[in-house]
Amino acid sequence: MAPDYKVKYDKREVHLRQMSLVRETSTLLSKELKLEFRQLYALSSLMLYAVSTCMVVYMAFHEMEPLEWVTILWIILLFASLNAVGKSFWQEGNGRNYYYYYLCSPLAIILSKIIYNCLLLLAISFITLAIYSLFLGNPVENMTLFGLSILLGATGFAVNFTLLAGIAAKADNNATLTAILGFPLIIPLLGMVIRISKNAVLGVESLNTNRDLMMTASMISIAFVLSLVLFPYLWRD
Amino acid sequence: MSQSLTNRLLLAKWWKIVAIVLMCYTLTAGLLMPVPKLDILNETIRNAYFHVPMWFGMMLILLMSLIYSIKYLRTGNLRYDYVAIEAAKVGVLYGLLGLTTGMIWAKFTWGAAWNGDPKQNMAAIAMLMYLAYIVLRGSITDQDRRAKVSSVYNIFAFVALFPLLYIVPRLTDSLHPSSGGNQGFVAYDMDGWMRLVFYPAIIAWTFLGLWVASLNVRATYIEEGISLES
Questions:
Q1: What integer is the mean pLDDT of A163-185?
Q2: Is A173 on the interface with B (CB under 8 A)?
């Protein structure tokens, strides 16, 4: 029998459950991180992906206008993120998913996946930025704002793509489906972060920057809350 | 209780009669009643009766699809899932018709069918999102799993629709009435005569879409052997 979470708990038990959610999440997260550090599969393959794409862009352009520079960087980050997050669920076989199902709550699973993907994408984004700047120079005027836009972008990609990876994992043909489902959904967010980072590159002092940052953050929070609410339904089979 | 409400509405006649009457009214009055004479717009202002209701209808029908997806996730009853998908299909149809009527209008007033206007782009992306929903359903054969997975995506997509259609286009300049620096139709040129046609037109198009969806739902129920009475 699967554990039934709908049983009524008294206050102490509720407290214990919350504790166990934190514990389950951190255990799962540390498992993901350990796995990553032992195999170094995701990080190294994505590093290689970043280097080879930057090479391709460099060979194609040699020199770029600042606005082209931002746009191409975001396209590289978008594809790298989709590749990185897209496989978060189908990497583990069906059997192991059932095992998790008996062990912990779906909330712990989605939380740990989202946090792990956030960390992974942040690492990849900043590494890609470094490699990209090495090849193609760095025209950014306002580096703080630019870093903030990359931070928001990576978090947003991680949050949105994690739930979509879960959806695509339930429908067996994964890679294409994740892209079909993910790209239209991510466009508003991508548009916002590209705007912010364009301002950062040109060093434009825009009155709208704060509003844009807040709006991007709230779009990400909505997607985050929605993922937490919806994932338990997806997970139950 | 709500189950029987769905069935009662599927079988009820009154709103289909309302749809027919208001549709006839919209088509005749929309083409014949007087409209304000404005530069550039001229007679194309009548598109307000056909283009704008497409978006109202689309949003209302997609909202219905969302409500039925939530109902499915709460109850696990497949009937609700069939309503959700048929409503979404009509929503996509209305979206495509909205894009087409908008493009015809843009050809006459803006000079080209596709000007890369933010509203046009965003509407096209919204269509991609819902077409992906239909593709997602096609890729899963198991009924219960398909219903569950696609309901989750439907809810996620609907929430993503709001920044897409209403917030992001307002941030950038647009030629479209009611966005950017331009005022809406309602604000500056819709006089009493136009309102007399415009509001009934919205009801007519929405009910017509619901009718199409309800027929498809009933066809699916017959295919799946689900009875309406129970």
A1: 84
A2: yes
Contact yes or no for B163 and A180 at CB 8 A: no
- The rounded distance, in Å, linking the Cα atoms of A95 and A97 is 5
Q: Do A184 and B128 touch (CB under 8 A)?
A: yes
ipTM of predicted assembly, 2 dp: 0.83
Predicted local confidence at residue A87, as pLDDT: 75
Neighbours of B65 (CB within 10 A): 27
How many CB atoms neighbour CB A144 within 10 A?
9
pLDDT digits (tens, 9 = 90+) for B103-137: 888 888 888 888 777 778 888 888 999 999 999 99
Query: How distant is the Cα of A27 from the closest Cα of chain B, in angstroms?
Result: 27
Helices A174-202 and A143-170 sit at what angle, rounded to 10 degrees? 170
Give residue A5's pLDDT.
52
**Type of residue at B14:** W
Contact B159, B129 (CB under 8 A): no
CB contact under 8 A, A171 and B136: yes
| DSSP letters spanning chain B | -HHHHHHHHHH--HHHHHHHHHHHHHHHHHHHS-----TTTGGGGGGGGTTHHHHHHHHHHHHHHHHHHHHHHHH--HHHHHHHHHHHHHHHHHHHHHHHHHHHHHHHHTSSS----HHHHHHHHHHHHHHHHHHHHHT--SHHHHHHHHHHHHHHHHHHHHIIIIIHHHHS---STTSTTPPPHHHHT--HHHHHHHHHHHHHHHHHHHHHHHHHHHHHHHHHT--S--
Dihedrals phi, psi of A47, to nearest 5 degrees? -60, -45
Q: Which residues of B touch A234 (CB under 8 A)?
A: 148-149, 152
Contact between chains at A171 and B140 (C-beta distance less than 8 A):
yes
Residue in A closest to B70 by C-alpha: A230
With CA atoms as reference, the chain A residue closest to B144 would be A237
Alpha carbon distance A69, A59 (integer Å): 14
Q: Reply yes or no on whether the pLDDT at B186 is more than 60.
A: no
The whole-angstrom separation of Cα B208 and Cα B202 is 10
Of A172, A184, A222, the CB nearest to B132: A184
Asked if residue B63 has pLDDT above 90, the reply is: yes
Contact of A129 with chain B, judged by CB distance below 8 Å, is answered with no
